[in-house]
Amino acid sequence: VAVDAALLAGVLMRTGEQPHASDVVNYAPFTLLPSAVPRALFEQAYAVQQDFNLLVDTISQNKEFLEQTLASTIKVDDFTARLFQIYMQVLEEGLAQTVFLGINRSDYMFDCGLDGTAALRQIEINTIAASFGGLTSRTADVHRLVLKVLGKTEEASHLLPNNPAKGLALGIAKAWELYGSQRAVVMFLVEEVQRNIFDQRCVENELWNRNIRVIRRRFRDVFEQGSLDASRRLYMDGQEVAVVYYREGYVPQNYDQQNWEARLLLERSRAVKCPDIATQLAGTKKVQQELSRPGTLEKLLPGHPEAVARIRATFAGLYSLDEGEEGDRIAATAIADPDRFVLKPQREGGGNNLYGEELRQVLEKIKDSPERTSYILMDKIKPQPALNYLLRAHSPLRASECISELGIFGVYVRQGQELVLNQAPGHLLRTKATEHADGGVAAGVAVLDTPYLV
Ligand code: ADP
Ligand code: MG
Fold it and tell me: Which residue ranges does the record assign to the Glutathione synthase substrate-binding domain (predicted)?
């Protein structure tokens, strides 16, 4: 019943076997049952989202902060260095872009304290290609039906409506409108392999509903067909592009030399990039770690003491591995007690972090080399597991010990210096078996879920 409901509701993905086909598809993995989420923490996560939007947008305009924070990282991490190089190049030329659009997702886990109380802890904020705002707007319907079939009609009525895709499209539409050209299109910048296309289509179709034209192109297409006119308006196949919405471009594998050139062309253009390169850099793990330093938030957001307090309350312990005494000390602590920490490189997309024995070995190896600087350390969050069933096509069904990660979507639009839209349009709950330390839905580890507030 659950699988039929998921297929009917459009909780879909292309298959691993035929990743380019839309005529052979299957359901995206999901939990049989919704998972319990403490209401107070859920509300706390929503309440801080506009603050995070403001913070990310502020950082994206602070060249000095980005330069200082990433100085050590770009010496050793080629990918971040490359992004940073484009950032400096577009600043030098002068920005043609005047309207800015941010779509992000701030992810949290519920850390279980010694006394059993749970605390909201931010895992990271994704400032580029934050996904599942589409499919997640359909999972609550599936879980509602499952609860009813189980005779839990009252419980079914408690599941919240949730439609981030609509809110994200509203932000894109606002940016498109402020760009100010009726004929211009929105371009989704997509991967070569688009298994998660239906998630993107949810946002795309909301734009078509508003009579905004959408095209889907890859970096390769931009390299071959993209051009700028004298006032740096972006054209693709003769159509003017108002907004570029990246659903790719966040990992080194997305780029060859031509794709880097395409990225530079897009960044130089007047089109609204979601995100612009500065906002992508604001979402690096290194920036996240620097934000946790005492005084940094206060400096970035003067005059917003309440926002600062709300943001800081979600931080876990984060530690710099830069060369020097501070880094030496925390590296030694983590080698002695690796289960307390997670070691994170400057990468996105899941499956990159190191834990336990592997963390110890890697850190032991790099502790006296500059390579150490390309990582950060973070306190490991330990949530209370709960039993659930993970439904995945072609996989046997069994009960697993699971933990969940809550994401809150953020969307904002700035025109010049004025934030004209700042919202938290919805949420995403992803759940995974505790045997996996890392990995998202796309990586085949986590599955879509719905919060049941308790
Ligand atoms: P990515 O950019 O690759 O998604 P994340 O920081 O989100 O990197 O980490 C990936 C996954 O690793 C998370 O979804 C979570 O399951 C796990 N993880 C990350 N940080 C922590 C942490 N501090 N404690 C426990 N698990 C973590
Ligand atoms: Mg993540």
Answer: 184-282
